[in-house]
Amino acid sequence: MSYLLSPPLPGVASGMRWTSCDAELPGLVDRWLPRRPSGWRAIFDMPVPRTRLADFESLPSDWDGYGALPISEQVRQNAEALLSLFSGFSPSLPPPEIAPHANGTISLEWEVGQAEAYLEIGKTRISGYIRSQAGETYLIEGNADEVDETLARLLEEHIYPCTELALPVTSLDMAA
Amino acid sequence: MRGICSPFHVSVSKNKLKPEAFDPFPGTDEVSVMRVKYLGDARCKLRAKALERLPTKSYRGVAVFTAELARKNCAVVVDSRRHYLGHADIHYQFEAPPPGEPLPAEVLSQLRPRLKELSKRAKYIPDPLPQSCRWSGEAMRC
């Protein structure tokens, strides 16, 4: 994952690109930026989620050995629409974990520090919850074709809230 | 234990189970499991490998956990030897949603953390020789 920070970090030359040293260590990212600083935007490209959705198209009946249903075109379209909504309204949200489920649904899941959000998308319904950093739980339920930017903003507010960066940056290592 | 046949149920890079590995059978609240104590490692492997349908569904390994862990996180473990001796079902005790639709949000908010805990605590044992009919991995014990 690469992040283009604008405006740049104090003491860092403008236009500098900071790259996560290991995409398998999301905790490292969390320690660096547990909260998104006010006025800053981290831009993520999201090639992985769309690749994952495409993988689900070929899942046959009983794809898990225990009777799992294939993921229908409608469910994939609903998930695609939701991902597009999030990338359009909340580009600072990290890409979710995407998974197919035995009942023919697709889930999107975010875990950032103590906060988590889980959305499961069906043919006509979407259902899930958000657990904030403070431990409050918000239930989400509704028609899949009626999701709007309110959900995106709710996710952003509770999963990756915008606050002042409290920790000063004292060193920054650059990878060649 | 539970046979693992889907790449979406295990993180190969981290060698860890995912909560989706414990999704119930569609239209039910049941998760089918095998009792290692009755079947033994070898027959558990044969049963798990029988789930395979190449090339789309490839047997990879097994998820091993105790009935106690299942009861602590999922609710009820019931012997169901009408399928075969050594078969059991875990019941999450909720009303199954229609095909292609998610559970209600309130149920999801309670069930998902339990599945995550179960996947975290269950032991994933990748089969060192999945193409063989013999079990040559470590003992299926927690």
Attribute tags:
heterodimer; A: 176 residues; alpha+beta; 5-stranded antiparallel beta sheet; two-stranded antiparallel sheet; 4 helices; 11 strands; globular; disordered N terminus; B: 142 residues; 3-stranded antiparallel beta sheet; 3 helices; 8 strands; 27% helix
Could you explain the architecture of this structure?
The complex is a heterodimer of chains A (176) and B (142). Chain A is an alpha+beta fold. In chain A, the strands form four sheets. Chain A has a five-stranded antiparallel beta sheet with strand order 6-7-8-9-10. Chain A has a two-stranded antiparallel ribbon with strand order 1-3. A two-stranded antiparallel ribbon of chain A has the order 2-5. Chain B has 142 residues and is α+β, with helices and mostly antiparallel strands. Chain B has three helices and eight strands. In chain B, α2 packs antiparallel against α3. The longest helix of chain B has 17 residues. At the A-B interface, β8, β9 and β10 of A face α3 of B.
Shape, principal axes of CA atoms of chain A = globular
- Please estimate the helix content of chain A: 25-40%
Order of helices and strands of chain A: EEEHEEHHEEEEEHE
Number of helices of chain A: 4
End-to-end distance of chain A, in Å?
A: 16 Å
DSSP E strands of chain A, number: 11
Sum this structure up briefly.
The complex is a heterodimer of chains A (176) and B (142). Chain A is an alpha+beta fold.
What's the topology here?
The complex is a heterodimer of chains A (176) and B (142).
Chain A: E1 2-3, E2 5-6, E3 18-19, H1 26-32, E4 36-37, E5 41-42, H2 47-56, H3 73-89, E6 97-100, E7 106-112, E8 115-121, E9 125-131, E10 137-143, H4 149-159, E11 162-163
Parallel strand pairs in A: 4-11
Antiparallel strand pairs in A: 1-3, 2-5, 6-7, 7-8, 8-9, 9-10
Helix pairs in contact in A: 2-3
Chain B: E1 2-4, E2 10-11, E3 16-17, E4 30-34, H1 36-49, E5 61-64, H2 67-74, E6 76-79, E7 87-91, H3 105-121, E8 123-126
Antiparallel strand pairs in B: 1-5, 2-3, 4-7, 5-8, 6-7
Helix pairs in contact in B: 2-3
